[in-house]
Design goal:
Elements: E1 4-8, H1 36-50, H2 54-57, H3 66-86, E2 100-101, E3 106-110, H4 124-140, H5 157-185, H6 189-205, H7 218-225
Parallel strand pairs: 1-3
Antiparallel strand pairs: 2-3
Bound molecules: zinc ion.
Zinc ion binds next to helix 5.
Organism: Sphagnum jensenii
Pfam families: Mob1_phocein (PF03637)
Protein name: MOB kinase activator-like 1A
Length: about 230
């Protein structure tokens, strides 16, 4: 088998703030953007998700601002991954998962390019902690994710969002490759699949993740697009 390792900075830290899985849209309550427009967009997301039409749910609603739409969804997807991974914290331990792998061919090392420049080989839970902390830092930074209505987004906003999605994908890749049986035994399989499908349809709609990054779950992703 080939070797491919991708070095990236990321992180995550979080405790499970909510037990159990429920509607995909439920995560939106966890990390609030206090912005009327954001709230309205979120209502739109909830309504379209409620209808079960994921392909429709990812589309930019007519007349809405693209960056605002990306921002609201970025928060939602972050919360979803947070919840999903949170259900695995007792299983995804440094002992069980000494490296952040996605199957035998892919291993990720952490660097954020700022505080950690040389990629670190860390356990999967440590990697996810770094990753989620890093994302939370981006979401909390008002110069990147403005919370005031009408405040401008930075010129590089799309690049930041792409990096966030690329990193969130790695958590899915690790969950599917290392913890899928546990997910099945927890009866979270359907929820995981729905979250992932929504995530992939969204990133596809706005070209947020390069194809080569998706390789660890390529077959699964192809199955999502078959019905198209
Ligand atoms: Zn793990």
């Amino acid at each position: 088998m080939g070797q491919e390792s991708t070095h990236i900075p990321a992180q995550e830290k979080y405790t499970l703030r909510e037990q159990g899985m429920s509607a995909v849209s439920q995560s939106s309550a966890l990390f609030g953007i206090v912005c009327a427009q954001g709230a309205q967009l979120r209502k739109h997301i909830d309504a379209t998700l409620g209808s079960g039409n994921l392909r429709e749910a990812v589309r930019l609603p007519p007349g809405e601002d693209l960056f605002e739409w990306l921002a609201v969804n970025t928060v939602d997807f972050f919360n979803q991954v947070n919840l999903l991974f949170g259900t695995l914290t007792e299983f995804c331990t440094p002992e069980n998962c000494p490296t952040m792998s996605a199957g035998p061919k892919y291993e990720y090392r952490w660097a954020d390019g700022v505080q950690i420049k040389k990629p670190l080989e860390v356990s999967a839970p440590k990697y996810v902690e770094y990753l989620m902390d890093w994302i939370e830092g981006q979401l909390d930074d008002e110069s990147i994710f403005p919370q005031k209505l009408g405040a401008p987004f930075p010129l590089n906003f799309r690049d930041v969002v792409r990096t966030i999605f690329k990193r969130l994908f790695r958590v899915y890749a690790h969950i599917y490759h290392s913890h899928f049986q546990k997910i099945v035994s927890l009866k979270e399989e359907a929820h995981l699949n729905t979250c992932f499908k929504h995530f992939i349809l969204f990133t596809h709609e706005f070209s947020l993740i390069d194809k080569k990054e998706l390789a660890p779950l390529q077959e699964l992703i192809e199955s999502i697009f078959v019905p198209y």
